[in-house]
Amino acid sequence: MSKALVIVESPAKAKTISKFLGSDYIVEASIGHIRDLPRNASEIPEKVKKEDWSKVGVNVEKNFEPLYVIPSEKKEQVKKLRAALTKVETLYLATDEDREGESISWHLAEVLKPKVPVHRLVFHEITQSAINKALQNVRKINSNLVQAQETRRVVDRLYGYEVSPLLWKKLHKRKLSAGRVQSVALRLVVERERERKAFISAGWWSLSTDLNHKNGIFQANLVSWDGKKIATGAHFNSKGQLKNKGFLVLDEKRVTEIEEEIQNKSARVVSLETKNFTERPYAPFITSTLQQESIRKFRWTAKQTMSVAQRLYESGWITYMRTDSYSLSSQAVQASRNLIQQKYGASYLPKTARVFKKSSKNAQEAHEAIRPAGESFKSIEDAQRMLDSQEARLYELIWKRTIASQMENAKGQTVRGLFEVEKGVFSASGKSYTFDGFRRVYIEGAVSPVTSSKILPVMEKGDSLSLSSLKKEGHNTRPPARYNEASLVKSLEDKGIGRPSTYASIIGTIIGRGYIFKKSQALIPTFTAFVVISLLERHLDWLVDYAFTARMEATLDKIAHGDEEQLACLKRFYLGAEGLKKTLSHAEETISPNNVGIALGETEKGETVEIRCGKYGEYVQLGELYASIPEQLPPDELSLEKAMELIAEKQKGPTVLGEDPKTGKQVFLISGPYGYYVQLGEPEEVPKKRGKGTRTINPKRVSLLSTMSPDTMDLGVALRLLELPKVLGTVEENGETISVLAATGPYGPYLKKGKQNVSLPKGISLLDISLAEALDIFQKKAPKTISLGEHEGIEVWLKSGRYGPYISDGKTNAPIPKSVDADSLDLAAAVALLEAKKAKGPSRRKTAAKKKVSAKKTTAKKTTAKKKAPVKKKAPAKKATAKKSKKS
Question: Which of 92, 313, 320, 433 does the annotation list as catalytic?
Fold first, then answer.
């Protein structure tokens, strides 16, 4: 009999841990949560299906008891864990050391019902020393952490399952959703777009010149004229007004007059101010700052960052990646200091170690910051050799941030000079580093740590300078920048909303639900988002209140620390005098179809134009008239004038381009919610093949290509569009005749040959392309397969795939790092890449993919796994005056 069973969350983590444990241990994975609230009606047990509360999965009348079920896809894994448990004498629950991980451990204990000793095993990195230390310091499951997680789960379920149906009903649109943190995050994005819509731009001009000194040339800007300071963009408010009336606003005429007045004049140095400065290094990464930095530097998403970090953690390269703590362990500090001494020298090493005591606003369980794992850090070179390109890049980022956090300050000087010319004063400044310090390794937001600076030439007060290259330029103030993922994460963190570990899923949800779309890196809210947030603000205001959401996070922290009762929090949130139940009841009565739109403006006749969303999309409405809003039109671009144009266009109806000579049907040009398209004929009603009644056959429709304008569309081009998808010809491949087609889809024009698709290169007409041209494009896009030779009797290949070139021996595929030239790769280097990939093991995706096993049906009664985390009995707390019972 084996000594112990160790259960972790993922197969990848199990594989890494098993390397450090001997044959006396069985290491298995739960593969995430094994039990949760029911996701749909099919998961609700028969004996409670008729209960009103069963759809929500929370029995409010029974102290908010959650209904826990084992999803069908987890039953085989539970069976496997139970079988493993019969072979051991001890059970170690080694799930992650946060609330979610604690909850998974509790559910495992509740479902498996072990008859052997149970220990909670926690570690923040997967290394031999960390696991040995954890085995020597086991503990029990922390019921406070379990209750905090369960409270969050219940609150979020009640919020989502009761607010979302209200939105469906009142807005007549399914698939809308609301969530405690999701809706507040969406409100931030909507409010920023409102600011952009309300923004009034202001114009101003500037004047710059090159000043020529005997020791060098530099650029200076006009900062005052005739004793008045010159206004720049920073001096205007969002309404286009000057914040300080004493500033002089230059227009083109005035700046031209100044230019003419100082042309060919000399300047004189009237002031030189030198200051020393010191820059301290950044703290090590926590979850939110890692997300922000990878979004800035790599243009990744928060979700992608967490996915890569998870792989690094599970394979033993970094410490736990969900953390709020900036602190480093003594062993990490020592490892960093040793590296700094060896790699950069004593001048870069502070006399004493740096301590970062600051924690995030919502710091919860005490973890270490994100850093390279172990008592000595694996090198960046090792990462580039042994990891895939994304993992290596993120590891390098974490390595550099950790090392830099323990390095000396950067030091330098700033010099600001004022230069007088007639009635004007020009200003120029320079900055130089006398010691780069931590900047030698890492600069936040910068791709490279190279130190750059602007240095003014050496000069003295009273020196004369000549002017050249006078440049006048007009400017307009810009509205506040839209959120991107990095700035939204920072705003959520600053307001104490949500948890860093949940930011990726929050952003993913509001994008996935169609509330937000991305344009480059900017997050742009849809009009549906505007309507939903407007409705929530008017009728359920406290549910999207930033302060309420932050207070709820603080309450969950208190429950986690044992300072708040779980049941008291739930009652206050749901049943309080102004709780969720009464708020929803009031909203149900007050919300009507007439008050769910957003007023865009009034026409000259005093009629209101509204923005609305419904079953078939977003639209503008004027009385009985309406028109679809073009898909992905940014809200700040929809003016009253634009809305009236859309309505007028809709009223004109389809444009008849002519008659198709083949079918005799009319060809129409129509404006729809996704842009213009051509249509052959009209919808037809035909009898159903079976049963009574008719069914509608929609006519063929093809969207205009991006290079086409509706203003120049004619019958000839429309008929050619309606031929799409068009067969260009056929080719013989492997004894099979394959058609080659030209077509257009959601992502633009493309070519199709059998199962192979390629996008049409720019500059080639989809309507005019020939078979020969199409085949040439397929030839150029064809995957590369080159034999590099044999190793131990197995052929080694260089191939090209969707994500770049890679090495394959038929069983293992190893990506080629970007730093390596694939075309110059030889057999030995290729074999080394394959060996490194084999040592790392299969990808997480492949490991998680399991074959479905058909389970034999049994007549045994279904059991409902329905347990409540134990609520600690406490002495009655002292009464405190609650400001509002609805707020937690």
Answer: 320
